Amino acid sequence: MNADDKVGNTAAGQAVKKGTSALMDLSVTDIHHKGNLALGVLVPVAFALSPSMLCLPVDLALGVVIPVHSHISLNLVAEDYVPPGTQRSAARLVIAFMTLVTGFGLMKVNLCGPGVTESIKSLWRKPKKE
N or C: which terminal CB in the chain sees fewer CB atoms within 10 Å? Predict the structure, then answer.
């Protein structure tokens, strides 16, 4: 049995093979452009749905898309403006660290707090008088 036959010749096996190869064919630029589209759709939907439980999946998606999109963007900036060698490597390490911190922070806000959308909307609300 060769490697091509491991997923089988069933319809499900072929669908998995096609989906996996399509995912592996994505370049960083493709992921960045898909992130642009995702943010362009998710942000207005999140603001329209908030406050409701329907906003939770959108907030969770934003908690993944925002750090990934920022990580790719900042790596492209570092590639263009930071000299190659140790400086660029250090810049990329800092970018990776900040991506992780941002991702964990957004997940904490989404899972333990009001969510990304409600947190942003609260910036424009008047504080409640007690």
Answer: C
Q: What would the pLDDT profile of 21-33 be if each residue is shown by its tens digit?
A: 555 567 888 888 8
Tell the residue number behind the tokens 């759709």, with chain if given. Answer: 41
Q: DSSP per residue over the chain, as a string? A: --GGGTT-SSHHHHHHHHHHHHHHT--HHHHHHHHHHHHHHHHHHHHHH-SSTTHHHHHHHHHHHHHHHHHHHHHHHHHHHSPTTHHHHHHHHHHHHHHHHHHHHHHHHHHHSS-HHHHHHGGGSPPPP-
